[in-house]
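[recover] target loaded
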């Protein structure tokens, strides 16, 4: 892609040069679009491991299939009649915070969000506002 810098304002040219230098720096480190896409896809499917310790023994037959028993301890003397001991359970669930940030990043990369700023450079203030259909009183 050829860019004719003579036809652009100096500010636009500086902005493009900055973006190109960032892209070059990322590629020099081996970070390409395909790698970013794969990492984004993994983040969209992110899971979190949850662990809980419960007093007493747990019957594995009563647990959902996704929950597994990591450890059990036996009751110490005096706790046996109350079903003492402890059980550690673990399961996977969706990492909603990671997935939400990944969705936001994907939408930003695809340009689905409107620009944050509207910048108007014009010597004729009234004409610029008329062209954008903006009231001058606001």
């Amino acid at each position: 892609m050829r860019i004719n810098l003579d036809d652009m304002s100096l500010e636009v040219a500086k902005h493009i040069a900055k973006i190109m230098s960032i892209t070059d720096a990322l590629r020099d480190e081996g970070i390409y679009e395909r790698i970013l896409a794969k990492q984004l896809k993994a983040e969209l499917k992110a899971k979190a491991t949850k662990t809980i310790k419960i007093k007493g023994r747990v019957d594995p037959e009563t647990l959902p299939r996704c929950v597994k028993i990591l450890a059990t301890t036996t009751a110490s003397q005096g706790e046996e009649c109350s079903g003492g001991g402890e059980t550690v359970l673990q399961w996977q669930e969706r990492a909603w915070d990671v997935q939400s940030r990944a969705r936001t990043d994907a939408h930003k990369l695809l340009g689905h969000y409107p620009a944050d700023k509207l910048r108007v450079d014009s010597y004729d203030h009234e004409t610029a506002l008329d062209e954008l259909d903006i009231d001058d009183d606001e």
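[recover] notes: The helical segments are 10-28, 33-44, 96-109, 125-132.
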